[in-house]
Design a protein that fits this description.
Blueprint lengths: L4 H18 L1 E9 L14 H9 L5 E9 L9 H9 L2 E10 L2 E9 L3 E8 L12 E8 L5 E8 L7 H16 L4 E6 L7 H9 E3 L18 E6 L4 E8 L11 E7 L1
Parallel strand pairs: 1-2, 7-8
Antiparallel strand pairs: 1-12, 2-4, 3-4, 5-6, 6-7, 8-10, 9-10, 11-12
Helix pairs in contact: 2-3, 4-5
Length: about 260
Amino acid sequence: MKISVVTLLFLTLLNANLFAQKADTLTIVCYNIHHGNPPAKPDVIDLDAIANVIALQKPDLVALQEVDVNINRSGKVDQAAYLAKKLNMYHYFAKAIDHDGGDYGVAVLSKFPILETNTLKFSRIEGRKAEDRVLATVTVKINSGKTIKFSSTHLDHVRNEKLRLIQVAEIIKQAEKETFPFIVAGDFNAKPGSATIKLLDETFSRTCYDCGFTIPVVKPKETIDFITYKKNEKMEVIKHEVIQEHQASDHLPIAAKILVR
């Protein structure tokens, strides 16, 4: 059977269109926003500076840490809702602790409507004083029609890794349950080569392995902020970068472009 040039061209374009529908490029930002307080200005809350930094990346999904909701120190503002409105995105806030008359925790911003939400409260070590930590997860349908899970987290900060290892183990347990592609971004308070990140790497791929430094904001010398995705997912990292914004927060934000097939 002969196939005409026109028919062949049509089939080629059709296949290309089907591929385009099946693949999607996501821009993801992760940012510890220090409740909108620039370190050089102790008494100032500047959420617009945070929003401007994020807006320049034109993100699809954003993981935020150290977010205030109706807390006295930051003017009783719902920071997650404020940033979402400013950026024309949907949002989900997950409370970790009560603080100064309000709620403190992590948040997710999404360009896509949020279909489901979930907060995983990490376990504690009995007898050890520690701030409660959480994993905030949203379910969204991206442009290609695929459904994915996206999470923001902020792990324990003390030098002893025992609690962080428990928290990562619980993230891994959550990942094992997921049937959709699963992306987790956050401030892990752990450097590459630490037991925490080595455990994370067993189940998750990072968007960088020779990563740029993210703290301190002036003359940064350590990397503790990461964007990760569950291994064996049909994802490809196109780009990872540390955004050189040294004024708005005490962390440098990171951004990655990921191809989801």
